[in-house]
Sequence to fold (280 residues):
Amino acid sequence: MDLPELIKTCKTERRAFEYLFNEIQEKRGVHCPACDCSDYYLMNEKRLRCKNCRRDYHPFSGTPISGLKISVISFLLLVKLFELEISARKASTQLDLSYPTTLKAFDLFRRSIACHLAKNDILLKGEIEADESYFGGRRKGKRGRGAGHKTIVFGILERGGKVSVSILTNVKAESLMNETVKKVRRGSIVYTDKWCGYDSLMFCGYRHLNIDHQYKFKQGKVYINGIEGFWAFAKERLMKHHGISKEKFLYYIKEMEWRYNNREKVLFVDLIHIILGADL
Ligand SMILES: [Zn+2]
Fold:
């Protein structure tokens, strides 16, 4: 659904409610919090009555909408503006919501995405590119490997498939191997740059080929341009946030992973279900 269509849907709270309620009904149903029964009487947009135990409950109880204490209209529009990568500052002005509420909602959306990714982890396989990159830290200083105050992100990309990122505390062989073994099927070919931390890959069940960036960036199939494309994608977007705290950084980079892996898709409806289905 595009923004003008959504604005039409959100003309009244009742219509916004109906839209969201139907989405939830279709995807996973509504369940009584007391007895889990999915049959109910619809009393009004604030109340359902369980046909089994007769208890009244709010249709979105236990979801982020009740936690954020915002209307369904505001919730749907916030999800849309987040999908469109509007900053929390701008979204709060456009929707006339307080900045802390908007930021809380966006943080929650990011945590929901990270939770969704963790639940749906799959092993990457085939031709893999692995690389690390350094994020954050506006202070000038060392760049690249060993840049103390920066956050180290390790990225693995399956050519023609998905990217998966994690945060590391160092780029020693042990850390790089542990992550690779967790995420990449044995027998895959792993392409990296010349960093010695990757030398042990061949002892972990992988075929390892590397390229020395000092001399060239591509030799036949040996290159890591795919994962470098992801770094550019993520850095361009994260720059807009003007500094992200270390505690929250994981959620921002996971958001980037999700956006990159779904960059051909319209994300709005998926995002609603990710948020409402997250066990945070
Ligand atoms: Zn019940």
Remarks:
- The chain has a mean pLDDT of 89.
- Residues 32, 34-35, 37, 50, 52-53, 55 surround zinc ion (CB under 6 Å).
- The CA atoms of residues 93 and 149 lie 33 Å apart.
